[in-house]
Every structure is written in structure tokens, then in C-alpha cells.
Amino acid sequence: MANSVLVASPQSLPGSRRRRRVGEKISRRTYAISSIGTFVVLFALWALVTLSGFVSPLFLPSPVAVAERLVTQIQNGQLASDAATSVYRIGAGFLLATVAAIPIGIGIGTSRRIEAALEPLVDFVRYMPVVAFVPLTILWVGIGDGQKFLIIFLGTFFQQVLLIADAVRQVPRPLIDLGETLGLSNAQILRRIVLRSAAPRIWDALRITLGWAWTWLVVAELVAATSGLGYRITLGQRYFQTDTIILYVIILGIFGLITDQVMRFIGRRVFRYERISR
Amino acid sequence: MTSDLAGNGTAAGSTEAKVTIRGLTKSFGPVLALTDIDLDLHENEFVSVVGTSGCGKSTLLSIIAGLTERTEGSVRVDGAEVTGPGRDRGVVFQGSTLLPWLSALDNVKFALQDEPIAAAERTAIAREHLSLVGLDGFEDSYPAQLSGGMQQRVALARSLSYRPGILLMDEPFGALDALTRREMQALLIRVWEKHRLTVMMITHDIEEAIITSDRVIVMSRRPGTIRAELPVPLERPRRPEMNADPVFRDLFSTVLGMVHEPAPIP
User: Fold this and answer.
1) For residues A252-260, average pLDDT
2) Which one of A94, A265, B44, B247 has the lowest number of neighbouring Cβ atoms within 10 Å?
3) B3-88+164-260: what fold?
4) Which chain A residues are closer than 8 Å to B97 by Cβ?
């Protein structure tokens, strides 16, 4: 008991405020309040400048107008069908890109020969602006779903290949040495050690590129489409429905946020061992 | 071969040692790392290799393990030329090579997964070896939950579990603090007295080399050559207190002198 004075924490010293440290941890509650606070402030600002008539509704509709638009879009079923179309396109396009990128990325990451043959090419192509391919893709495959898949593919595949190759290259050499001394074949080392070791990084690469895929989807749908979230935005532009545009932009943001959180959640569950410590 | 039953020391009736190295040379490009290495490791003998950093001692181990190709010379294990890594030579690496996604028990079982035995037996062997290195109760811990010393114990258990004839250890305790290192040395002595096998340990800790080994190999600075092979005349079983023994102190100063002596100019 006597030494309890000696271990008293700095907080309890009267009259002195504890110094905040760089990168200091905060409670979950403080974190949540700060995060929500930012959204509330932005929303309030938006409501203030629009409802007060400070900004013309043509340029920026009020939250009320956008909410009304949301109700109409739900009631007439357009929102559901637009969303379903877009989710289908992004799902298919992203899946195609991923299925192709994983083996190629692993190949580049594990074989210098494949790296030499493909990586400079991939590096080169990924700097070509995807947007500029839109007219070409329309010429090649028309304006149907195939063209949307192609744009999403072009926008994500090359990035995925490089990120996956990097993830594979980061597998510590001693783990591969271990596999060899245990008498494993190269195929076994690849499956049991390299892929397992790189998996969390590969999953991260997919999560990040899935975020980008949303952008490419909207790009494709803005230019040439007859359905989808991006198409509805184009229609909104045509008829000066700024409330529709704002509504769909917000919905796209929410969709992106949800997919990212779902990917994060799955990653945390599957790769739980990455987050444990002594 | 009946020599397996011969116990420690030189394998009786065998014409060739467990590991035979003749005229071994290794160069990395223009840099000569090892030159003219002749060395025998006998059945169930514990040998340590000491030398300053950069003398090529880890390269020597890596060549015996089959992970590094030699430039010239011959390395034979059980009479057969080494052409690559194999299960007859277990390796404990310098840093942690535990698989972070597997528990301690599963890390040991990882070495056993292709053995033609029942799954229950695999688990039993893995448990037994974790127990051998004093890790009862840590079977379900992940590597990130274990201290550096405990991680190396799991690695040691893993290397012993599949019964390689030779254990190669590359500065296995080099990354540990001094106290943990002493503990690990005592543990290693205990384990080896119980399950004898041919061991070659690379270390820069002369005390560690003497207390654990039957023979200490001293290497010269680059290009690495074998300067001396010194038998350790301490009785077995070894105890940590033996480092106060005059025999130990004498040997210690001899090795220390040799390690720091500049290489003779040819």
C-alpha cells in the first residue's frame, strides 16, 4: 500500500494536464464520435447553405430534395434495378480481372523469367489512361455489359497483377528455405508456404482494387449505357435533375464503403493471426 | 548399417564419417568466401563452428544444408554427394521461420504432414516434441504470442520431430538476449543428451560453442578456412557451471586468441 504513491499515474496529478502523445490511442467511443461528427458537420453545412436559399437548388439541391428523390427512385423501382445492374457488372468484371491476375501475379512474383517477360509490359499498360480506351472498347464490343466488363478489367487487372506480384515477393526467403529443407517440392512450397504467407497482402490488393473498380464502372456507364447507376447520373444531367445526381453519387459512395468494410471484415476474420500479439 | 547403434563418437565399423567435406571452396563472384575446407562430422557428434562475422561460417552450413551451391569440392552425407536440401538434414535458422498462420503445435505438425502415419500419431509426435523443449501448454499459441526464445524452441522441436540424422543450426540463439540464450543452451544440452544426433552449430559465442560441443571448429577471417579443430575435454553430461572449470577457461582463451588473430599472409 505504501508504494501506491509511487505508481500513481500522471493523470492523477492535480492541476497538471497530461501531455498528448503522437499517435496516442483513444477509446472506441471517442473514435466513433469523432467519425460521425465529421459527417454531421458536413451534412449540417449542406442543409444550411441550401435550405437558407444561399445556393440555388439547380447547383446544389437541399437534403430534403435529395431525400424526396430517393423516395421516388425507390417507389418507381429504378434505384433497385440500377443498383442490381451495376453490382452485377462490377462483380463480373472484377471477378474476371481477379481470376486472371492471381496466377499471373504469382507467376511474376515467383519466377524471374516470367517477371522479365511480363512485368515491364504490365507496368507500361497500366499507365495508359483507361478512360481513353472507352471509345475503342465500344467499337470492339459495343455498349452492352461486355464493354463494362472490359473497362473494369482494363482498370483493375494490371494494377492487381503488380500488387499481387509484390505480395508474393514479400514472402520471407527463410520460409522458402525451410520448405526446401523439409523436402517439399516447389509446387508444395508454392501452395503451403508462398500462397498462405502472401494471402493477407493479396486480399488487401483485391480490397483496394475493388474500390477502384467502382470508379471504372461509373466511367463506363456514364459514356455509353442504357442502364446502371452511372447511366441514371447521365440522365440526371440531361434533365437538370441535380438531386438525382447527388443522390446517386452518395449511393455510390455508400456502396463503395460497404464493399470495403465487408472485405476488411472478411480479411480480419480469415487472417486473424495477423492481429494477435503477445 | 549397424553404426546407428554405436552411440556417440566415431561410428564404429563405418569407413566414412556422417558428413565428409573435402576441398570445399565457395566464391560469390570475385569474392572468395570459403577456401579449402576439409571437415568430418561424425555420427552423433556435436560440433560448433566459431569465427568472426563474415568469415563464411553460415555459408558453410548453407552448403551442407544444400541451400547454397558450392563452387568446388565435395560434400557427402552418409556417403552420398549433396545435390540439394533434404529431410536427412534438419535446419534451425537464425531468425524465426515459424509460419505465422499456424499454432505452435501445427508448426511442428507442418514438418510431419507427408509422413505416412495416422493424424493422431502426427499430433502425438508434435506434442511430445513441444514437451521436450518445455512448451507444454503452449500448443495452441500462435508465433506472434511467443517470445523469441520460445519461437526458437518451437523451431527446434519442429526440426527434431521428423528425426533427421543431422541437425544444422545457424546461430540459433543469436537474436536472443543473454539470459534467454543461457537458458536455451542448457535446454539444447538437455535435449541433445536425450536424443543424440549429429549436430553442427554455427555461433559467434565461444562459451556457447564450448559448453555444448564435443569439438569446436575455429574459422579464420575471409576467405574462410579452418584454423583449428579443438576437442572439448569436458565430461558429459554438461552443466552450465562448467564454464568455471579451468579446462573450459583454457580452451576459451585459446579459441578467443585464434578468432581474433589476423590471417597469416600467404
Assistant:
1) 93
2) A265
3) Rossmann fold (3.40.50)
4) 172, 174-175, 177-178
